[in-house]
Amino acid sequence: MSAPAYKFLPPELAERVRGLGLAVRRPVEGAMQGLHRSPHLGSSVEFADYREYAPGDPPSLIDWAIYARSDRHVIRRYQEETNLRAHLVLDISESMSFRQAGLHSKMDYACYLAAALMLILLGQSDAAGLTLFNDEIRRSFPPVGSFDGLRPMLLALDEIKPSGRSQIEEALHQTAEKIQRRSLVILISDLLQEPAGIIRGIQHLRHNKHEVLVLQPLDGAELSLDFSGLAELRELETGARLPVEADQVREAYANEVAKYLEEIRRGCLGSMAEYHLIDTRTPVEETLHAKFSQL
Length: 295
Known about the structure:
Elements lengths: L10 H6 L19 E7 L3 E7 L11 H7 L3 E9 L2 E7 L14 H18 L3 E7 L3 E8 L2 H12 L9 H11 L5 E5 L6 H13 L3 E8 L1 H4 L6 E5 L6 E5 H25 L3 E6 L4 H9 L3
Parallel strand pairs: 4-5, 4-7, 7-8, 8-11
Antiparallel strand pairs: 1-3, 2-3, 5-6, 9-10
C-alpha cells in the first residue's frame, strides 16, 4: 500500500528538508530524551554541578576524585537532554488567502512551512502540535511525537479555507494559558494587525517561559506597490475598499510598510522572540534551508 499523499507535505519537500533542525536558546520541558536541554537535573551526559551526598543516595554516584582531594562526599548532577514540545499556531484568517506576486497564497505557503516544520521536529525526536485560529481558536491538536500522530494535522492543513478576521493577540493569550509545560511556540501569520497587541500576546508567552518563533509570510505585492495609475484596494477581512492613485502614494506606502515591519521586528527582539519576515516569492524549501540549516 502506498503512503498517503498530503498537499502540503509532498515527497519532494519532505526529502529536501531532511537534515534540517530546530533548536531553542533556553531550557524547555519534556518527557523523553532528545536534543534539547531540560531545566530538570538527572542522569545524563552534560555535567551541571555538585551537591553534598545525602543518606539514601546511591554510593556509586559519589565523586571519589573530589573526596580524595577534599575529604567531602559529593555527587555530580547532570542536565537531562530532553525532547522539545512545539506548538505551531497558524493564522487561517481571510487575509492569508492573498496572492499576487507570490509563488503561493500566503495561506498555502504557511501550510507548507507548518507541515515541513512538524516533520523536522519529529525527525529530531521532538513533538509537534498545531493550533488553527482566526477570530478565535478553531482547531487544536496536542503535540505528538510519531509520524502516525502527525497524520490528522496534515489532513487538517489540507482542509483549511481561510475566512474571517484575525485576533492574533487573543489567540496567543489563549495559547499561553493552555500550554502547561515550557515549550516552543511557532506563530505563522501575516501579522496584519496593530503590532502592540501582537507583542502583548508574545510577551504573555515569554512570561510563561515559552520560547517563541515568529514567521511572517508576506506577498511581494504587499511589500511594495508594483502597479501604476488609479486602482481600488480591498481589505480582505473587512471588505473595505479604498481608491488610490498608486504613483502618488507609492513612497508613502513604502515608508509605512518599513515602519510597521520595523515595529514588529523590534517588538519581537525586545520580547526575546525570534522573528523572520518571509517573502512568498521565495521557494519554500529555500526559506527552510536559509532559516533552519545552521544546526
